[in-house]
Amino acid sequence: MKDPGRVLWWDRTPPRRRHRRLTGSLDVDVAVVGAGFTGLSTAYHLRRLDPGIRVAILEARTVGYGSSGRNAGFTMTLFGLSLQVTKLRFGAARALEAHRYMERAVETTRGLIEELGIACDYEHPGFLRVATSPHHERRLRAELELAERLGIDGIEWLDADAIGLDGPRYFGALVESRAGLVDPAKLVAGWIEVLDRLGIPIFDETPVSEIRHAGPRRELRTPAGVVVADAVVLATNAWSHLLRPTRRLQVPVWTQAVATEPLGDRLDAIGWRHRRGIEDARNLVHYYRLTPDDRLLIGGRDIALAYGRNMDRTLDEGIFRGLEADAVELFPALEGVRFTHRWGGPVSATLDLAPAIGRAGKGIFYSLGCMGHGVSLTHLNGATLAELVTGRSGELSEVFFVDRRVLPLPPEPLRIGLAASIRAYLRLEDRLLDPR
Description:
The chain is of the alpha/beta class. The chain has helices at residues 8-12, 37-49, 83-90, 92-116, 134-150, 184-198, 266-270, 317-330, 374-390, 414-433, and strands at 24-33, 55-58, 74-75, 127-130, 155-158, 173-176, 180-181, 202-203, 210-214, 217-222, 225-234, 251-260, 277-280, 286-290, 296-300, 339-349, 356-359, 364-368. The strands form three sheets. Strands 1, 2, 8, 9, 10, 11, 17 and 18 form an eight-stranded mixed β-sheet that branches.
């Protein structure tokens, strides 16, 4: 990936370069490829299930370099695009199962942060999904009706005057108390300390170029060394198409964000009387929040795609300018505010826009398709993967999206054409339903 831009979180907590490249050979029970939240949590939960297990993490760049270190820091219950889309794709029972899994994911993430003493500016103010058009009000009310029919509680409707924000013309919102906010870079740094204490090695600047069968075991080739393992966990999310076992299971999509200077007195002017994270009801959502130092962070708006194996896509200047304009349109009191940070990069999307965990051959396991909603999801997926790898069956490894059939993406150039067609449809519907 080319320069991700000036990432706000990395200014506060620079990525930790361990300068620990793998050289020579290494023999372990489990090799984890990828040092984002999925890989870090998987390694932790493997050791928690089996204190004697030998685990090593291989990271192509630096720990948290992917979306784990540059997301907006929402811990939330959203699975895929929406509860309605999940029901349409998998049925009502599985939509409920997915939501329960995500509720557990939020609480698991919060519990790990507290239990392990990770200082990451965690807050638990809840989450809003706001309607910015009459069409989106109907969409969100239908979402609430479905949740109530399924027996999901803790989600309520707020009329516009109860939302607690001055500026935009909202038409109402869903409010959910089960949601938190973190500084993702600090959370990454905290995980490094936890795994260091457990003696789990993380090798950075160690890309895996090939995974081979070596009798009953697996052999992972890196530029200066080789790892032999009984099992391999591919925690590579947006980069998963670069490895043969997961080549056609997901597509990377680029999302971007901007952040203002600290708002100071402007914060009172926009009337943000709570600190909830916010998303609107578009397909290509806007998401926004206050940071610990009271900046406005806003991201989303549109996505970008890349062809084939290319992960060096340049970020889109037009999306950055659009986000900055959107921030002022949402909150006119921010006219003239200085934007200090712009950044972005790829997240992982499956063809049916839902997460997937599974096996890609004997002894190879994967998790992908977190759709940009992965802070809490990845933490619980680590526990699920640990169950799968160790063969300790439990309720986590029995959820429906473990070993589900993932709709395969076609080879290029059909893949980019299909992904672009889906994006075009999502864009068109957003323009029709939210014509601001």
